[in-house]
Amino acid sequence: MTHPTPVRRDSRRPLLPQVLGLAAAGIPVLPLRAGKLPFGNCPDCAENRCGGRPNMKHAGPCQCPQPCHGWAAATTDPAVLSSSAWARSWEEAAAVAYHPAGAGVTVVDLDNAIAIAWARATLPPTRTVATTRGEHWIYQGTMQSANGVRPGVDIKSSMSYTRWLGHGAGTMAPLPAPVRALVVKAPTASRPVRCTVTAPAGRGQCPHRSPAFLERGIAMAEQRITDARSAIHATVYRTFLAVLSAHGRCGCLTEAHIARLFTAAQAKGESARHCADAWSNAATALGM
Q1: Is 151 exposed, middle or buried (0-12, 13-18, 19+ CB in 10 A)?
Q2: How are beta strands 135-140 and 127-130 bridged, if at all?
């Protein structure tokens, strides 16, 4: 993770050029409204009206052509960041946020002087960024995010976003065990939720010349999800769409194959619900 010039809101200077600099450095970014809230990035979800729930525009899960909910909207793709769908968001943005895990880091958000004193006595030194009330301690490595792990201490990494406040000072250290331990729960907490989606019934001609053809397709889909660094929602949906399009009409696709895809998606921070929604939306788009 490299460190361009800090992004600061200046009505005389558009944010987009600075945002593109962050993206070029491998930092997935998204615009924030006042109050540290993300924008909706499509007309149906302007001002986050849908929130992933039914609304006046459409019923059921959001079926936007691109991710529009918080951290999942963060991207390093300059074409997306410069697109007309995002233009108004950048014009009206009060700040810029980034997805820490997408940049390969974890942020320990220390909200007050007491939390900072605890960190200095407990955690190894690392890069620090000053905030309004405290500090961000940034470590190399990713983990589960959690709020309120201690008084005044939040963890921002996977499935989370935080404001970009500059490159900070100091040398970034590897993510230490004491930080990981802050969110450790029961051993089963990190296990993927079991796939409960039913494989589509076979109704079309089988395109598979051998079992290896299907196996190779599933393995490539798993790898595509695993390799994603940003736009996780969109990558998962498009991968599910491709799998169903190629393998979903003949009856060879099984629950075991779907479970492998869901496991890969959940390892990237997707919830079981988001996996099921993406699968259902992909099947609906293909008329299944």
Answers
A1: exposed
A2: antiparallel
